[in-house]
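Backbones bend. We report:
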Amino acid sequence: MATYKEIQKWIKDEFGFTVKTCWIADVKEKYDIPIKSAHNRKGINRLYPCPADKEKAIKKALKHFNMLQKEEL
């Protein structure tokens, strides 16, 4: 399983922008990919959910790292 840094680097190289780790965690949660609890997370709701325009790039990265199946894209 890829690290958040690896996912961020891949997205930066492929799409030219940087994503926040909380956006990655938000997308992973939507597709039932296990995430660890964050020490700085307050409550159950995300303060910064993934913007809709960035979700596609994160999903492609998760697919690239074999964390999502093709049919889930």
